[in-house]
Each structure stands twice: as structure tokens, then as C-alpha cells.
């Protein structure tokens, strides 16, 4: 990855972070779009799995700081998801929107499962309801938003020709 | 060639393991340690993002509340629109209560129901009848003044003629009793509708605009002292021996809601100081101010007289070769008494006027077949 590609990836990363803290609260959906996860996934596929794990850890830790009781849960989930995304990047370099949507969906769902299990705030029926109802809905919303963003931010996200 | 790749994979795995281990350590940290870490991140790295999130949530809340806020604003606007009418009604009721307190006894409160349109009212239906002690020809008054007279009485309600009725008459006089006349509705033109006219004022008497016209009590129906209206201007009529004045009524038909029906014995006892207390306070205030002015004028005159006496003494001493002339009375120069105020020849004492006037009598609702009186 050259510097130009890195810079464009960083810009799209910042845009997605800003969207996460502006558009998501504005929409206020019960199954929210996770722009943070989209940002981490899009950055992870451009770096090595180890670096992706570090990015996931840092982003997860920073996001967790807003909920001190679950500090670390998001970091674990984001680290694992980012590492796996980077490890599977060969698969998702394909220019296929449906595949990218599935990539975002699985990534978000896995993140939620790891997060809510690690957080240990929900249990029993509530946990099942969260993981098998609200998390898939949120993952679907995230996948749709991710695909739309890929289409809209294609000039920023496509690999450098050099 | 495979060696570096395997090595990199191992490094990646190590990094993953380290990150996961750190995250798990963070997860199991006691709350006392988690709190400073998260607080530090919120205040540093996350501060601008938290600010963005806060603004977004405020915007969302504003969007969510825009509907209820609009409804609330509309409700407040609607209430604000009714506030003026409520205040007016409150004032009116307060005045009526004040009137009742001043009348003390001998009256029946009633609501006035406008029979036809408000702009074309000559009769009123009152929500009190003979069961409440209302009798035919009982005066109907409000806090502002004269309203009308009861014409028909039912057990539970009664019918009253408003002063706008063409047959309505009331014997009237000015507040200072300088002029007497008959007040009736003035319906000469559409623009002067709901005005009154004071007829039969002697030609030698001129009334100033704004003079208060009250009932004179000479007709027998209306007790003396009920405000009728204020003089607006003189109007020309065919009568050459008397003047006629246009009078702005104290009570307009649209304003009549709550009224008092005076019982005959209350009217007979007189209504002094019922409507005139406010005017009396104003007159007393004016008198006090006038007295203060007189005292100041007297003091100024005394000072001037003393100064004049001093100058005269100096002149006398100079004429006598420096020998001072003693003052005439014990060394005290008494100031001359202020000159008496010139008598205003144009002003006539009210009692004189009362004697001179030949008041026309007859507040009535006559002049028609089968008249009330």
C-alpha cells in the first residue's frame, strides 16, 4: 500500500468516524448503523492482520470509553473482527457489492456477538433477543450503509493504479 | 521465500494475542482503574467526537420535539389570544363586584342576554325575574353606568329596554348640575349610531366637551347620580330656544354582559357616592394640589413684601440723614395680605344654577301607544 492509498483510506476512515458520532445519533434507530465498524473493516483490508488488530483494539477501546462499564468488551470484539477482516482481505477485494454487503453483515454480527457476550450486561432471553433479532437488523443496516458508502466513496476507496 | 511470510504471520498472531490480552485485561480491570482510563480518553481523543455526538443528539431531540413544540406554541398562541378577552371580562366582573359593594343592598345581579345581533340591540333579556324581586320599570345599571329599564317581568327572567331603544328617555343633568335636559338615543345617521343626545338644555348654558352627564333623579324612575355619558359636541336642531348635545354613552351595547337591576326602594334611598367615588378622589386630589399652589403663592408674596419693606426702610433712612425710622408695629414688617382671588364672573355657582335652572322632568319610555309609563 502506497502513501496515496493510505491517505485516501485515512480520509475515508475519518469521514466514517465522524458519521458514527453525528449521523448515527441523529437517526436514533433501534438497530443502528455501525459506521465505526465499517471504518475499521475498510481500513483493515488495506493493512496486515497484525496492524488491523492494533487498529481494532485502539478504535474499540476508544469507543468503549463512552461506556466505562463495558470497557474492553468492544476492544476485544473489534480486535478479532479487524484481524479476521484483514486475514480474509483477499476474498473481499473482489469488486462485488453483494459480497461486500455480506462482509459487512457478518463483521457487524460477529462484533455484536463478541461484544454482548463479553460485556455480560445482557443475559438469557434479552441476550438471545439482542443477538438474533436486533444485531442482525443492525448488521443489515450496517451492510446496506456500507455498500452505499463504498459506491459513494469509490474514488477514495479504490486501490491505487500505481 | 516462505520463511518471511510465515514469520509475518507469526508476528500478526502475536500482535493479535497481545491486543486481545490487553483488551481482556482492560475488561477485567476494577472499576476504580477503568474509570480514569475511560475518563482520560473522553477528555482527550474522544472529546471532539463526544461534542459532535452531543450536538447530534440535541438536534435529534429538537427534531423529535418540533411537533409537540409547534403544538405547544399554537396552544400558547391560542391562549394568548383569549387572554385579552379574559382580562377584559375579569375587569368587567371586578367592576361589577365593586359596584355591588358600593350599592350594598337593594339590587339584583343578572346576566344580559343579547336577543339579536350585538350591533342591533334595543332590548335585553335579563336572567332574573320576579322571583328575585325584579319589578317592572326597575332601572338596569352596570359598572359603567346606565343601561336601560325593565319592561316585562317573568318569574325567572325579564325583558329590558336598552337605552338605544327609540322610546327610551331619561332626565339628566351635568355633574355640576349646571344644566338639565332629557337624554335619548341619537339615531340620526349610521355613523352616529349608539350615541345619545341631551336635549332641552337651556340656550344660555354651554357645555364643554367631556362634561359628564348623569341622571338627575327628577323623573322618578332613575335615581340621581347614574353616569349616562360624556358630552361630545353640540348638534344643530330645529329647536331655537334650547341646545342639544351629542353624548358618548358610558355603556355600549356590546359591552353589556353582567348588570344590576335596582329595586325601587334602593333607588328611593339615593345612589350618592356609588359612581362618583372615583371622580370624587380626582377632585379631592386636584383640590389638594390647588391648596399647595395657594400656599406657595402666599409664601412668595410674603417674601416679596418683606423685600419691598426693606427697600422702603432704606430709602426712608437715606431721606432722614441716616436715621432709621422704626417700623410701625413692634419692629416686625408684616407682609401685606395676599389679594383676594378675583371672582370669575363667567363661572356660576352650582347651587345658583340649580335654582336658576328649570329642570325638565320625565325619564320615561313613553311616546308610543301602550307605553310602559
Order of helices and strands of chain B: HHHEEEEEEEEEEEEHHH
Question: Widest sheet of chain B: strand order?
Answer: 1-2-5-4-3-12
As a percent range, the share of strand residues of chain A is under 5%
Kindly report the oligomeric state of this protein: heterodimer
Structural class of chain B: alpha+beta
Largest sheet of chain A: none
Helix content of chain A: over 70%
- Most extensive interface, residues per chain? A-B, 36 and 38 residues
Give the overall form of chain A. Answer: globular
Low-confidence stretches of chain A: none
State the total count of DSSP E strands of chain B: 12
Q: Treating each run of at least 4 consecutive H or I residues as one helix, how many helices of chain A? A: 8
Q: What structural class do helix, strand and pairing data of chain A support?
A: mainly alpha
Q: N-to-C terminal Cα separation of chain A, in Å? A: 10 Å
Rg from Cα of chain B: 42 Å
Q: Give the helices and strands of chain A as they follow along the chain.
A: HHHHHHHH
| Beta strands of chain A, count | 0
Descriptive account of the structure:
The complex is a heterodimer of chains A (162) and B (373). In chain A, 78% of the residues lie in helices and 0% in strands. Chain A starts with a helix and ends in a 5-residue tail after the last helix. With 162 residues, chain A is mostly helical. The radius of gyration of chain A is 15 Å and the shape is globular. The mean pLDDT of chain A is 86. With 373 residues, chain B is α+β, with helices and mostly antiparallel strands. Helix content of chain B is 41%, strand content 20%. Chain B is built from six helices and twelve strands. Chain B has a six-stranded antiparallel β-barrel. Chain B has a six-stranded antiparallel β-barrel with strand order 6-7-8-11-10-9. In chain B, strand 10 (227-235) and strand 11 (242-249) form a beta hairpin. The longest helix of chain B is centred in the first third of the chain and has 57 residues, at 47-103. Chain B is elongated. Classes of the chains: A mainly alpha (162), B alpha+beta (373). The A-B interface holds A 17-18, 21-28, 48-51, 53-54, 56-57, 60-62, 64-66, 68-69, 71-73, 75-76, 79-80, 83, 87, 118 and B 8-9, 11-16, 19-20, 22-29, 31, 34-35, 37-39, 41-42, 45-46, 49-50, 52-53, 55-57, 59-60, 63.
